[in-house]
Design brief:
Two copies of one chain form a homodimer. Chain A has about 260 residues and is α/β, with parallel strands linked by helices. Chain A contains eleven helices and ten strands. In chain A, helix 11 links the parallel strand 9 and strand 10.
Chain lengths: ~260, ~260
């Protein structure tokens, strides 16, 4: 059984990828919708929240965890790996390796929340994969909110204007590969592509799901279909509609409420 | 001593107004920056958080409280008034009365978060003040994030595009008065005015501060200057810079951290 958590629902993009790769695996998803977003909060607060999220998931006896949140991955991963005795995957390493292997120009961009960009975790991971690659990181704190508030239709003028503002420093920078360092961003990849045409986008959630599947995959199990349970820290009334944005045609069950402050 | 809380820092606009009207009064401000925003969360969660916020403030022996958050006021006020034995002011009543008294066309608009608009608290309060007034409410969930992420300069293209989208239903609706039902919105009133020129804007935080001051004011005290203490639930490192957006030239001290989930 794999546990997956995110500050909210963006991590569902990684869950879908993982469920496609490991269809026999049981999974528990926790979205901290009662305290979302993490990306504008301090590192100490993000670490505290992430430990609670893991405590909750570990109560189910999970064998491995995916921190499907760029902010939590960039901030809390060392603490989580120290505190918990199971493999803990983040969304940074796989995307960084894929970006370093993909770039031809030797220049990679990273988009993330304020906290993710400030702590430089993606930048370090790309350098770890290939010291010669130059990395330019840009914080795009409004993107999460544009996605969560439905500014996601292709061509949306508000989202395009925000993308133009945020991505201006990357124009003409010579990057040919761009890491989407937050699991919300794939939903508005059309806006990023409009501003930076021809640049290869790497979804950090998707890359992490592939890496986790290849490390844990045991060849399809016994043919049974894995069960997926969803938990959230806000009232789950609108869960299915909200999750649809991230999960497309994937079947979505209801979600259960958990008071995460007790963990 | 007056206690003031908000989901984040928007309530500081009301605090400044109150401090100007009651300069001798001691005040405690709590901003729930570790769980901001409230406006997109469920009513049950908002009530739970608001009760914790009040529990914290009441530990200081406050004589009255101002819920300087449109979302919390529209959702939690009845519960807070029942649970706590001091006067609890929200930001709805004063703004609603002022709007009903101001309108000449008999048509008033309300801007608020999703939760505030869904529960219709401002609408009911305007009707309570004057049954004949027609009210049109519009949810503007992105506005809080535009303010918190610095899209506040007069003429900002992203904020203008968002204002045009949200306010379209109010164009040609005949409203001449518009309640800013969230204490963040006065910071981008220029964008609202650009889309709806000539409409009179009423700041709910300012209106509430005036009402509270006139009900509690005792003529200037003994000339001493009141003390203001600030508490937040996220790490307070960047408090002063973040608060400056809302407080202008008002003197800002440092903020202290509180683990609000314990209350």
């Amino acid at each position: 059984m794999i546990g997956i958590f995110d500050s909210g629902l963006g991590g569902l993009t990684a869950l879908c990828e993982l469920a496609a790769l490991l269809p026999h695996e049981d999974m528990i998803y926790f979205g901290d919708t009662g305290r979302v977003p993490y990306g504008s909060k301090s590192e100490a607060t993000i670490v505290r929240y992430s430990v609670q999220d893991m405590n909750f998931l570990c109560g189910f006896g999970i064998d491995a965890a995916l921190v499907a949140c760029g902010t939590a991955s960039s901030t809390a991963l060392p603490t989580l790996r120290e505190k918990f005795d199971i493999p803990v995957f983040g969304v940074i390493e796989a995307a960084a390796r894929e970006a370093a292997a993909t770039t031809r120009s030797g220049r990679v961009g990273v988009l993330g929340t304020s906290t993710t960009v400030r702590n430089g975790a993606f930048e370090r991971a790309v350098k770890d994969a290939d010291m010669s690659v130059e990395v330019t990181s840009v914080a795009c704190p409004l993107f999460v909110h544009l996605v969560e508030n439905g500014f996601i239709e292709r061509g949306d003028a508000v989202t395009l204007a925000a993308a133009e503002r945020y991505l201006a420093p990357l124009r003409g920078s010579g990057i040919d590969t761009l890491i989407l360092g937050c699991t919300h961003y794939p939903i508005i990849s059309w806006a990023i592509e409009a501003v930076l045409p021809g640049v290869r986008l790497i979804s950090s959630g998707e890359a992490a799901a592939k890496m986790l599947a290849s490390e844990l995959g045991h060849g399809g199990g016994d043919g049974k279909q894995g069960k997926i349970r969803f938990f959230v820290s806000d009232t789950p009334d609108d869960f299915e509609a909200a999750a649809r944005v991230f999960m497309g045609s994937f079947p979505i069950g209801h979600a259960e409420y958990v008071d995460i402050s007790k963990y």
